[in-house]
Amino acid sequence: MKKSLQDRILVMFSWCCALLLATGFMFIVGFLVVKGYRGINLELIFADTRLLDAFFLKRQVFGGLFPAIIGTLSLILLSIGFALPLGLASGIFLAEYASPRLKSFFSLMVDILAGIPSIVVGLFGFSITIFLHHFFSSQIFPCLLISALSLAFLILPYIIKTTQVAIESLPLQVRLTAPSLGATKLENIIFVLLPSALSDIVSGIVLAIGRCAEDTAVIMLTGVVATAGVPRSVFSNFEALPFYIYYIASEYSNSSELMKGYGAALILLLISAGLFALAHWIKLKIEQKTRFGY
Q1: Distance between CA 191 and CA 183 in Å, rounded?
Q2: Cα 269 versus chain centre, distance
Q3: Is the pLDDT reported for residue 292 higher than 60?
């Protein structure tokens, strides 16, 4: 069938937007690679500390990125661990249990929560820390736990919305198969709906990982410092790559320090890409095991 002029214009516009996006992405990545690849070496990560001493925490790494890498990974894992159960439960509730009026109200609240600037979430976490310090225990200070809880609050809307949409978009035949065989609603959700929607839910988790890995405003107000070392517990201060990049970019005194900032940005990009690749691999495995043939 011959395409109309409007269809051709729309296709051309779509291709232009896709090419513009791809070009911008390649330019940013290429810029980081060109600027940062010369600065990536073991000295950048471990400074003058022996590799085994750093890994087994026998010596603290001063001037290297190893503590910031560990802090970033710890922050991501804790934030996802806190946000995932609540996000899944909330998404299931909105998709399967909430009335239309309640679903409309809570969907609006989730959308508003998703639009809150990260600096506001950081100020909220800092205020909670001050409140707990004054009224509950003077031993409570900004720490890894407060940062992880604040980031969990920030990424919660992504997981809730993705879970809700993934479950609601399942075909009717998948939804009705288990109940027609006598399964309860809860059994249908656990054994049929969730496995069928899990690959799409992982997409929301991927977005959450990216938000955790790059955010600076929240952690800057809730526990990150420049020379904290590897965090010994969730109640200690920590280092993180986004803050290190911000700190170096604003305080560098010579070109070698700026080169470290580019190297840190490239390492952060590689960590994010690795986590995304892992999540995509998990998604493919889930799709292979939960494919019902609809």
Answers
A1: 10
A2: 13
A3: no
